[in-house]
Specification:
13 strands; alpha+beta; Immunoglobulin-like; 3-stranded antiparallel sheet; 5-stranded mixed sheet; 1 helix; about 15% helix
Amino acid sequence: MKYFSRSYTFLVILVMGLILGACTSARPSGEKEVAEPSVSPESELRATLEAPASLPSGEAVTVKFTLTNNTAERLYVLKWFTPLEGLAGEIFRVERDGEAIPYGGMLAKRGAPLPDDYILIDPGTSVSTEVDLATAYDFSRAGDYTIEFLSPVISHIAREETAKASTLEDLKPVQIPSNTVTVQIVDSAK
């Protein structure tokens, strides 16, 4: 009877484990697996935006983008979908008085990333660039414009040069925290 009791207990545990495993890994048919974003905590990478507080309508809306490496190691950051490559996609959220302004700039089609698509950021240092958002967003009307950097939907961070991605399958979203800036556009006719 003891033998039957142990075997039965083992069998029950085995069946429960299989059922639990099937329940946690099953997805409804047709549902695709979504890649979890690679979180870049504030202690690792941080983006900072700077812009003038006020501009007359019709002027360039130049925003300075700074990406800071807050780690003690070198980081190779894929420039795609950041201002470090220019404006090649919808990488900012722009709103005028709470109303979304659509992106009207170029859209880049991409193949596999190349080593030159990365930028090296040494420990504790930053890289900066400036972009004119008026080339891709409509700032022609007076109002208060809020500008926010959107974290890259396809990106990669490598800690060694040999770890750079070589295929699109190696890439996934990366969360890079950033501040939001406000620019007041005033009617230049007044």
